[in-house]
Specification:
This protein has one domain (4-334). It is built from 15 helices and no strands. Helices cover 74% and strands 0% of the residues.
Length: 340
């Protein structure tokens, strides 16, 4: 699983990549929910497209392994919708909360607290909601469809990967934006994820949401259950990873001179209100919903959409679709605005 220092360093790079392109910022993610800022989706598409091609090569050479998440139908659909709703309300993802906290965003801290409660409640209610999460169709991916690392498999991955990258540039051309940081960030995220996958490093995908129930359960002593045993290793890994991301973002913001304690961001003021109390309450609610949805689906933006996407996992593509639906629908309703 890699040494603690190595995991921390990988997390630091993750944090710096997000910070560089502003992918962690509340205004960026809430802007995506309103379809007024496509930086997030463009970056993710580049990361998936390039990462899928690179990971298929390293895995085919025996340098890495796939870690495909199972296709748990109900969990992916309902969890994806709930996660997307939480993402729109909160304005962060499980990983970006740590990065934004490093920059001084207090609403991210409140979102983290809400997420810890969401993780704790999920552990408590999991036995009761298991029927809703199923059925489990297994670990389905482009590789399981092809059956081997054949010419057809590589051709399929390369073609799909290039089409996904093309989609990112098509969106960019349509919005006529001049900023190109998303390109470099997408490439960097793809390279980082593939490196993390390598057997010589940590032999696992990047992820973030599992750390929330792991930490919450550990702190409250809710450890005598099958779920905690299942998430113990990945949860601790992701906690170290996110700590590295937060520390790197903090140092980076100090170096750039833009560290600032802030609770109410511009987009919240523009589309909601100027009240600190309102923002704090909704940040907690959003964090709770976000992590609860992530645990229903078995992953989040980094662990499901990107890390799963580069594996061409059907579960991850399905989660991504319903996550985006939840994000856009909630963004339109919650902010009471029309989608352009």
């Amino acid at each position: 699983m890699g040494s603690t220092l190595l995991i921390f360093v990988f997390g630091a790079f993750f944090g710096l990549i997000l910070q560089y392109a502003g992918l962690n910022r509340y205004n960026t993610i809430s802007g995506q929910a309103l379809l007024k800022n496509n930086t997030v989706v463009k970056t993710i598409l580049v990361a998936i497209g390039l990462g899928a091609i690179l990971l298929s090569i390293t895995t085919g050479l025996g340098l890495s392994q796939f870690h495909v998440k199972p296709f748990i139908t109900g969990g992916l659909i309902f969890g994806g919708l709930i996660f997307g709703a939480g993402m729109a309300i909160l304005g962060y993802c499980p990983g970006t909360m740590a990065v934004s906290l490093g920059e001084g965003s207090m609403d991210a801290l409140i979102g983290i607290i809400g997420g810890l409660f969401g993780g704790l409640v999920f552990t408590l209610v999991l036995p009761a909601i298991k029927p809703v999460l199923g059925p489990d169709l297994g670990k389905l991916s482009a590789y399981t469809l092809a059956g081997s690392f054949s010419f057809i498999y590589y051709l399929m991955v390369i073609v799909i990967g290039l089409l996904i990258i093309y989609a990112a540039f098509y969106i960019h051309l349509k919005e006529k934006s001049v900023d190109k940081k998303w390109i470099y960030a997408g490439v960097a995220l793809a390279l980082l994820d593939v490196i993390v996958f390598l057997s010589a490093t940590t032999n696992r995908p990047i992820g973030a949401s599992t750390s929330y129930p792991w930490l919450a359960d550990a702190v409250t002593g809710l450890t005598n259950n099958n779920y905690f045993q299942k998430i113990s290793t990945p949860g601790s890994w992701e906690a170290i990873f996110l700590l590295g991301a937060m520390v790197a973002a903090f140092i980076g913001s100090l170096i750039k001179g833009d560290f600032k304690l802030i609770l109410v961001h511009d987009n919240w003021k523009k589309y909601k209100n100027n009240a600190a109390g309102s923002r704090a309450i909704w940040a907690f609610v959003g964090g709770f919903i976000l992590i609860f949805g992530a645990r229903m689906a078995g992953g989040c933006t980094s662990g499901h959409v990107i890390s799963g996407g580069i594996q061409m996992a059907f579960s991850s593509f399905t989660f991504g679709i319903f996550m985006f639906m939840g994000l856009i629908i909630t963004g339109k309703v919650f902010f009471n605005t029309k989608v352009d």
